[in-house]
Amino acid sequence: MVNHRIEGHTAVLTIDNPPANTWTPESLRGLEKLVGELDADRDIYAAVITGAGEKFFSAGADLKKFAGDKVYARHFIACFGAAFEALMNARFVTIAAVNGYAMGGGLECCLACDLRVAESHAQMALPEPAVGLLPAGCGTQNLAGLVGEGWAKRMILTNERVDAATALRIGLVEEVVDKGQGLAKALAIAERVSTLSPRAVEYCKGLVHNARNAIPRRAGLALERERFMDLFDHSDQAEGVAAFLEKRKPEWKND
User: Fold this and answer.
1) What is the pLDDT of residues 196-210, one digit of tens each?
2) Measured at the alpha carbon of residue 54, what is the angle toward residues 51 and 57, in degrees to the nearest 5?
3) Edge-to-edge strand order for the sheet containing 123-125?
4) Which end of the chain, C or N, has fewer beta carbons within 10 A?
5) Band of pLDDT at residue 226, cut at 50, 70 and 90
6) What's the CA gap between 66 and 76, in Å, rounded?
7) pTM for this structure?
8) pLDDT band, residue 101 (cuts 50/70/90)
9) 31: Cβ contacts below 8 Å, ≥ 6 apart
């Protein structure tokens, strides 16, 4: 299951399925539903997702569920895709606090987030081909977009596991912190998000995704200018400029 709590403008999500925080269709549907509910709550500006305990972020899918049942496997992988696409497309900023092993569908969950903070002992891999499968929770697409084709192939096609230091070097994570400090660091990043105009952040995230999704550059640049003008239809634009000129913190309405 995925537990959650709200701290200010940040939702804290915890994957909690001992002993390795594996995913099930039920927990994936729960994640998809929860992301939808948070997306509809305009008071949520960011979400942090982590794993229960100190050893696992998530070890991925419960492989016992894939034992010879093709119909069930199709259902399971559809749940993976729906949940992680919902996470990718969420209006708010998503941050993975990788507090241990993130394997297979566990790493794919991290890849679906906007940012990743790894604790120093974290280990990451997409080992699905080793058991006759492939990373179909958006993994082949998202990993290549982050680390480039070479490292994506190295991790997927040769089953290379990377540690936190390597993940930082190749761009798989944005920061490495000491063991036990991942959640605190992710929450600090989320707090910075809360100082910004939520609608401006939402538009910026969508524009960056357009670039990632190979939208023609001319169209992307035109949409960038349109989104800039769209901000003038909301009160936070005037509030942001006024606060800057008056040397005070803005009070966002997120209308």
Assistant:
1) 999 999 999 998 988
2) 30
3) 56-58, 101-103, 123-125, 162-163
4) C
5) confident
6) 8
7) 0.90
8) very high
9) 2, 13, 83, 86, 87
Cα 228 from Cα 99, distance rounded (Å) = 37
Task: Tell me the two tokens of residue 207.
Answer: 């524009």
62 against 139, higher pLDDT? 139
The token pair at 45 is 């500006």
Q: Report how far residue 65's alpha carbon sits from residue 118's, in angstroms, rounded to the nearest whole number.
A: 28
Domains observed in the chain: 2-193 (3.90.226.10), 198-245 (1.10.12)
Tokens of 56: 């696992």
Spatial separation of the C-alpha atoms in residues 50 and 14, rounded to whole Å: 5
Among the listed residues 142, 127, 125, the one whose alpha carbon sits nearest the alpha carbon of residue 84: 142
Residue whose entry in the numeric block shows the structure tokens 């169209």: 219
**Helices of type H across 94-248:** 105-111, 139-157, 164-170, 182-193, 198-212, 217-230, 235-245
User: What is the set of active-site residues?
Assistant: 108, 128
